[in-house]
Write a structure and sequence with these properties.
By secondary structure, this protein is of the alpha+beta class. The protein folds into 2 domains: 2-17 and 228-412, UDP-n-acetylglucosamine1-carboxyvinyl-transferase, Chain (Alpha-beta prism), CATH 3.65.10.10; 21-224, UDP-n-acetylglucosamine1-carboxyvinyl-transferase, Chain, CATH 3.65.10. It contains 13 helices and 23 strands. The chain has helices at 21-30, 47-58, 83-86, 96-103, 122-130, 161-172, 187-198, 230-242, 258-266, 304-311, 330-337, 367-379, 399-405, and strands at residues 2-6, 12-16, 36-40, 62-66, 69-74, 105-109, 134-138, 141-145, 153-155, 177-181, 202-204, 210-214, 223-224, 246-250, 270-273, 277-281, 290-292, 317-321, 341-345, 348-352, 361-363, 383-387, 409-412. The strands form 6 sheets. It has a 4-stranded mixed beta sheet with strand order 21-22-1-23. A 4-stranded mixed beta sheet has the order 2-14-16-15. α8 (230-242) packs parallel to α12 (367-379). The radius of gyration is 21 Å and the shape is elongated. The structure holds uridine-diphosphate-2(N-acetylglucosaminyl) butyric acid (EPU). Uridine-diphosphate-2(N-acetylglucosaminyl) butyric acid is lined by residues 22, 25, 91, 117, 119-124, 158, 160-163, 184, 188, 301-302, 324-325, 367-368, 395. GO terms for molecular function: UDP-N-acetylglucosamine 1-carboxyvinyltransferase activity.
Length: 413
């Protein structure tokens, strides 16, 4: 699959953002903690949601995707996750905490590394161990077992999003109180806590670096709408700024966008916040800036690639340091094919702005790299063919259609 862009069109108009992929994935995993009929609203039809739904269905749960609502009928968890499904997406590992809490035992294939780094799961396992689970690693599988999980104090060496979420889910049904220290502060972590609390859980402090989870005996089914996707919103903000356009992005929580907004304004774009929308325009040339990716509320690593594409045409040299993932510059080589002038040393890239990018054949290596190459293609002279565009479908619903509506000359083949 490929996306073909003919660059040069300014983007103008209104675009609507979906619910957050990275909020929905743990929320869908957390449905396993309850029993009964759960409805999750405004769920985009994207590949990662399909993979986790298939996986949950494979565990013996009835799953229906009705228009943009996901309906789950949770009863017993009959199976363990199959390797076939787990290997398709790292976030599959998020079902480990809920299955362990509900069934007392879980066996799952270890997620391998992926394009953006080795991404170990030691912090998740450290958390389960602290809650009293016996952990066994053998032949590429991990088994965790505990007849009862017991509340505990867990200090995370790094504020990992996935570890905070997985431990929070396991602790939701544990006996007593669990404290996660140096927890991740991401809005998606807060949304998961809100979802578990809506089911009757007792979580406080989500969004601060100490999360307290008081275990409860059972969680009840609910109807829930996850938060908007701040990375989808950020991608349209960049596309608007990169093309010198003027776009209103709807269904946004501006508070979640602070780091992205600050960097766009620093680069000379105009950003206007409304209560649940953001308008981005740019009339001046792009000023070079410095970016370092950090856990929330720092600058999100999931926007690093898109900013690199944008800054490729800045008036001067920008610097980007990737501090969250060890290997998240694969888009750099592809941007070079389009005439960008970028040099990387370790985790730092220096982007010397050029006047214009030129269309080329490039390949998406992961989701955000794919989005970045499309942004680059929107500004480039001539035709850009983004191969492997299936990566983009993991996280953006109707990406090509939405950009088309904003005036881009773009198709999917
Ligand atoms: N890490 C460890 N040990 C662990 C867990 C993480 O060393 O046990 C390291 C990772 O290797 C990485 C860093 O900690 O270097 C951050 O990983 P984190 O656990 O915070 O990330 P994640 O939960 O695997 C989520 C998002 C990612 C996003 C990161 C950082 C989901 C499903 N995924 O991943 O989203 O980049 O947080 O914000 O929520 C994307 O959407 O494109 C994407 C990759």
């Amino acid at each position: 699959m490929e996306i073909i862009v003919n660059g040069g069109n300014r983007l103008e108009g209104v675009v609507e953002v979906n619910s957050s992929k990275n909020a929905i994935l743990p929320i869908l995993a957390a449905t396993l903690l309850s029993n009964g009929h759960i409805e999750i609203n405004k769920v985009p039809k994207i590949r990662d949601v399909k993979i986790i739904s298939d996986l949950i269905n494979d565990l013996g749960v009835e799953v229906k995707h009705e228009q943009n609502k996901l309906v789950y009928n949770v009863s017993d968890i009959k199976n363990y996750p199959s390797y076939e499904l787990v290997r398709q997406m790292r976030a599959s590992f998020l079902v480990m905490g809920p299955i362990l809490a509900k069934k007392g035992k879980v066996k799952i294939s270890l997620p391998g590394g992926c394009a953006i780094g080795t991404r170990p799961i030691d912090l998740h396992l450290k958390g389960f161990h602290a809650l009293g689970a016996k952990i066994d690693l053998s032949h590429g599988d991990v088994t965790a077992e505990a007849s009862n999980l017991i509340g505990s104090h867990i200090y995370l060496d790094f504020p990992s999003v996935g570890a905070t979420e997985n431990i929070m889910m396991a602790a939701a049904l544990a006996k007593g109180s669990t404290y996660i220290e140096n927890a991740a502060l991401e809005p998606e972590v807060v949304d998961l806590a809100n979802f578990i609390n809506a089911m009757g859980g007792k979580i406080s402090g989500a969004g601060t670096n100490v999360v307290k989870i008081d275990g409860v005996n059972e969680l009840k089914p609910v109807n829930y709408t996850p938060i908007p996707d701040r990375i989808e919103a950020g991608t349209y903000m960049i596309a608007a700024a990169a093309t010198g356009g003027n776009v209103l992005i709807n269904n946004v929580i501006p508070e979640h966008m602070k780091a992205i907004t600050a960097k766009l304004v620093e680069s000379g774009a105009i950003v206007e916040e409304e209560s649940n929308a953001i308008r981005v325009a740019r009339t001046e040339s792009i000023k070079p800036i410095y970016i370092k990716t950090l856990p929330y509320p720092g600058f999100p690593t999931d926007m690093q690639a898109q900013f690199m594409a944008y800054l490729s045409c800045a008036l001067g040299s920008s610097v980007i340091t990737e501090s969250v993932f060890e290997n998240r510059f694969m888009h750099l080589q592809e941007l070079l094919r389009m005439g960008a002038e970028i040099k990387a040393e370790g985790r730092t890239a220096i982007i010397k702005g050029v006047k214009k990018l030129t269309g080329a054949n490039v390949k998406a290596t992961d989701l955000r790299a794919g989005a970045a190459l499309v942004v680059a293609g929107l500004t480039a002279e001539g035709e850009t063919i983004v191969g492997n565009s299936i990566h983009v479908d993991r996280g953006y619903e109707n990406f090509v259609e939405k950009l088309n509506k904003l005036g881009a000359d773009i198709i999917k083949k």
